[in-house]
Amino acid sequence: MQMAVSAGLNPALRDPSCHFVLSWADGENPRDAEIIAAARIAVRALGASLDQYVTAVHRNRPNIHAHVVLNRVHPLSGKALSLSHDYARLELACRKIEHRFGWPPDRGRFDHDVMEGEVILVPKPPAHWHGKRADRAAGLRPDPRGVLGSSLRNGRMPLRDRMTAERRHAARTAMRSATDWIALHARLLRLGLRYLARGSGARITEVTTGDWMPACQLGSEFAMPRLVARLGCFVSAPGQPDRVRAPRSAERRRYDAARETRRANIAALQLKYRDERQRLGQRLKGMPRTLASAFLQVLREDQNDDLMRLRKIAPLPRLRADGVDSAVEPKDPAREWALRYRHGLRRTGALRDGFMLAQTPPDHTCLRQIWHKGFGSSVDEDHAADLRALGNGFAMIARRGSRGDLLGYDLVRELPGRGLCNLVPEHRPGLGSLGDPRARICIVVADAAAGMRISAACADALVIIASETPNLRQTAQIAALIGPRRAVVVVECPKTQAGFLEQVTTVLPAIGVLELSDSPGGVDAEPNPHADLPTPSPLS
Q1: Contact predicate 421/428, CB 8 Å
Q2: Strand ranges inside 402-535, DSSP E
Q3: H-type helices in 341-490, by residue range?
Q4: Residue 252 burial (CB < 10 Å; 0-12/13-18/19+)?
Q5: Given pLDDT bands bounded at 50, 70 and 90, which one contains residue 495?
Q6: Strands, DSSP E only, in 424-504?
Q7: What is the pLDDT of residues 144-190, one digit of tens each?
Q8: 66, 103 in Cβ contact below 8 A?
Q9: For the whole model, what pTM was predicted?
Q10: Closest alpha carbon to 405 in 88, 103, 70
């Protein structure tokens, strides 16, 4: 009610609301109070600290998220909030939220840095955007809503993911070698595919199922503008109109007609309401703004009640009520996994198809995707294990917060002649642990490579992996995890880890200290230690 009255202070504003979503990654489990505080920071970043907003926390999805609905009209001045460059302001807010609460920084449009305790955004280097163009040339683009919706209804994976590597290669070869449109249609038809114009672009449709994908998902060279430039004006296949719409069943046509009738009735009613508001506005000229806004609000409420009555009399038609798309296959964990991580699997497939793509940096986002995508099988059954071998000498260790939520990952590699080496991310919140959580002895180390070596030698101890520069949150977590048990801190490089030793012994003055000055090094100094980082296998 209050937000509606405030919105009436600026009747010229077509859409007085602003809606955005804050989402947390797989494994992260923030408290409701932290989510509300994060929403407050995001609202302030938009310059709306005095505006009205509502935050709704949802935990009904794999990713915990919060919806924030903001009233753009200031409740006192009636001025509209500017949303110019809101993408940059919200990204800066996300980086500030992560820095404040100790959550790992996710990947965004910008890089970020902390200068004198203040988080700032930094433009990404040109190499990043060159890599983006290479991805688009390889067809690594988001799915349209229609593709994903169809997949969820019919129980099949999107056509792009069901095509084998051989079929993708054959389709690309057919379109590259075609000298005119008729030859292109004939060669694709032999593969069970059609090339259809749709809007300003094109779709590739499977003949047997009717499933489709944007043509550019096989590569940007197969998009409609590129092929028109090479083959001339688009010519449809013989016996086929230039722009084909998929045939619709009688149930779907009935559903579309009912929906169109309802839409027309509501549009006529809204036109009538607009005329009533304009006439009332003419009569209220000269009145104080607050009083005029109250009269308009009463009229809006009457109109909303009228509209609600119409919607009850003529409810929104449902597809399933007409028997459309009513048969959906039962949920398959493997299919759900492949659908959730399809973009990473497509990238692996594009590399195997011969496209030259930029190597993804092993930042937190990359490591999180690798951790949850799994290796060797499409379903990772052992979610409790915090140590995973990836192949090619790589291993990952999960870092958890005080409530068991995943806050980061350590990447370790075994190199010939050098042993275990750390591939250290920029930011590592949380703690890693190896061994029995109920062990009587706890060993605290500063890096993952040392933790793996010591855990192999001391199987009866719980090895706690911190950071070389632990913050107050980490040291408090170390103390809570150790509790009344005996503990020792192991320092492999006393010169470089003096700060780590000082911070741990300050919080735990009774902890034992063991210095291993002759221990092998822990940080990998290869020119490119991530070159052979394995990636999950695609479906084909």
Answers
A1: no
A2: 406-415, 419-423, 432-434, 441-445, 462-465, 486-491, 512-515
A3: 342-352, 364-373, 448-457, 472-482
A4: middle
A5: confident
A6: 432-434, 441-445, 462-465, 486-491
A7: 988 888 887 788 899 999 999 999 999 999 999 999 999 999 999 99
A8: no
A9: 0.76
A10: 103
